[in-house]
Amino acid sequence: MDANPAVDESVIQAEVLVLGGGPGGYTAAFRAADLGKQVVLIERYSVLGGVCLNVGCIPSKALLHTAQVIHEADEFEQHGVIFGKPVLDIDKIRSWKQSVSAGLNDGLARLVKQRKIRLIQGTGRFTSSNTVEVQTETGVTTVSFEQAVIAAGSHPTKIPSFPHDDPRLWDSTDALELTEIPKKLLIVGGGIIGLEMATVYHALGSEISVVELMDQIIPGCDNDLVTPLYRRIKKQYKNIWLQTKVTSIEADKKGLKVTFDRAESAGGTSDKGKGAPESELFDAVLVAVGRRPNGKLIAAELAGVNVDELGFIAADKQQRTNVPHIFAIGDIVGNPMLAHKAVHEGKVAAEVAAGHKAGFDALTIPSVAYTDPEIAWMGLTENQAKQQGIDYDKAAFPWAASGRSLSIGRKEGLTKILCDKQTGRILGAGMVGTNAGELIAEAVLALEMGADAEDISLTIHPHPTLSETFGFAAEMITGSITDLYIKK
Ligand code: NAD
Q: Is 241 in the pocket of ligand 1 (CB under 6 A)?
């Protein structure tokens, strides 16, 4: 029998097409395949994993681990063990970092094969509400789809007047390349990327300056959680200029000439932001002032999908865009631009596409800065509780009273918990200190399970662990704490 004349055989057919192979995209593809869908996954790079695995979360964590070991060895003198000055083999550090990503790339490639997903390497753009054209190395391939998931991510924000072509002006991808260790490194933006990269380059020997527009580093986080980090890096780094903006960067033979000014937000009586020079030369400058969604790079309008001015694509609780058979997930649908949010959304989109009743109903998306000390928070921040006029009880357990924290030579940590004044239910929590990023998961579970302070305080935490500090904070709220004396 003749093939159906309506079907063009040069066109690849997909029940579910996924555009973008980052954590959100590959998760959506895997879940859809596991639910019986025939899936085509399009990724522009030769490896899967997107920004997170290749030029983001994973390589940065590999380098942050190196930084941590260097710092710990240095500080161990106080514990009676003296290590020599570290000898850094940058090429070896770089190849170790790459090997971490490569191992995960290989694992993903295997998972694609095992699930019989068709992977096309190339850049995809919509040509209609049911077709995508992929520019591959060898030509153009057309994929026709029944349903699609847009998972095309984001890119680092560029400041137009800066000389971005100069190799000494970096974005986070350049910083992770580790091509050189600049003597003087300026970091523009005291957010998570800026401060994680500052941690790495400081350990590798750069003199660090940070310039931040707002009146605190990591502006989205409560100030009491940020303060222990601020105090530590204030001693380590050459400068931290708050409420300060960069007005220009000029390429000079001797370096990048950066000009500063006090930010408009720096009105009032604050003396922060003073102290920045009019201009200074740096060997390299990392610009880490946020990320922009890639919504405008995929010709979504040809599919009828609305893209806003910034490049975001709105999605509902089922991750559907305004075109019901096209879903969107991850950085492209909005902040926070975090891999774990994208993964969760990817599962929702795949499940809905496969006809399941699913929706994004997570109560919180935790945030972690993998600095030293780490900072992690989830649920309502105290700033938000105040702004929203929510009546809350608060407890903050100081890690100076944690045997485990003292035994690792650190005492600056804090575990904070906010509970509803009437019901006692946990509303939010945050930690600053070693491994805070691991500890926050218990608070997220408590929030999802509707736990109250008593539930948490009656949960036996192993001793001596840092996790106890979460139980102690809850005991401070219930009034049963014995590890501190709180005057009634
Ligand atoms: P960010 O928004 O977290 O921080 C940018 C910082 O730059 C802010 O503090 C902002 O006030 C400041 N800023 C903005 N414009 C400035 C200017 N002109 N001069 C000086 N300061 C300026 O953005 P990021 O650190 O670039 O991270 C981008 C995204 O990636 C975020 O969504 C972040 O959550 C995510 N990310 C997460 C992790 C993690 O979870 N550990 C790690 C890296 C990145």
A: no
Q: 305: CA distance to ligand 1 center in Å?
A: 28
Atom 4 of ligand 1, residue of closest alpha carbon: 191
10 Å CB burial of residue 388 (0-12, 13-18, 19+) is exposed
Residue 129's DSSP bridge partners are none
Is the pTM higher than 0.90? The answer reads yes
Atom in ligand 1 nearest the alpha carbon of residue 192? 25
Q: What is the DSSP letter of 331?
A: G
Ligand 1 centre to CA of 228 (Å) is 19
Does residue 64 line the site of ligand 1, with CB under 6 A?
no
Q: Separation of 4 CA from ligand 1 center, angstroms?
A: 52
- Start and end residues for every CATH 3.30.390.30 domain found in the chain: 367-478
Where in the sequence of the chain do the CATH 3.50.50.60 domains occur? 11-156+292-353, 169-287
What whole-number distance in Å separates Cα of residue 417 and Cα of residue 431?
Answer: 9
Question: How much is the pLDDT for 89?
Answer: 97
Is 288 near ligand 1, meaning CB less than 6 Å away?
A: yes
Helix (H) or strand (E) holding 430: strand 426-433
Which tokens sit at 142? 């057309």
Residue 323's pLDDT band (cuts 50, 70, 90): very high
pLDDT over 90 at 275, yes or no:
no
Atom index in ligand 1 nearest the CA of residue 193 equals 25
| d(CA 290, ligand 1 centre) in Å | 4
Cβ of 263 closer than 6 Å to ligand 1, yes or no, is no
Residue with tokens 């006692």: 424
Architecture of domain 169-287: 3-Layer(bba) Sandwich (3.50)
Check pocket membership of 291 for ligand 1, CB cut-off 6 A.
yes
CA 232–ligand 1 middle distance (angstroms): 20
pLDDT in tens, 184-227: 999 999 999 999 999 999 999 999 999 999 999 999 999 999 99
Cβ-contact 199, 71 below 8 angstroms:
no
Known catalytic residues are 463
Q: Coil, strand or helix: which one is 91?
A: helix
Right CATH for 367-478 from 3.40.630.30, 2.60.260.20, 3.30.390.30, 3.30.420.10: 3.30.390.30
Indicate which atom in ligand 1 lies nearest the CA of residue 188.
20
Asked if 434 contacts 71 with a C-beta cutoff of 8 angstroms, the reply is: no
CATH number of 11-156+292-353: 3.50.50.60
Q: Are 303 and 284 in contact (CB under 8 A)?
A: no
Closest residue by Cα to atom 15, ligand 1, is: 289
Q: Which of 95, 96, 94, 75 is nearest to 86 (CA)?
A: 75
